[in-house]
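re the bet — no i am not wrong, look at it urself. input seq straight from the record:
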Amino acid sequence: MACDGDRCQALVGIVGEATQCSIYAVRPEVCRACMPGDEACAMAREAWGMDPLDASEEE
């Protein structure tokens, strides 16, 4: 997926408040592989100044 600056063009909303993927049903494999709370998720959250997910948020 192409990026617009440092975020995906398909991501709509405000990071840290509410976001969603505008192409979720046809998103690329790289997006499907990233799971809530995994290493890639933690790295992205850190880059945006967000705390890591805790176990209750991962469900």
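see?? The mean pLDDT is 86. told u. also The longest helix spans residues 39-47. so pay up
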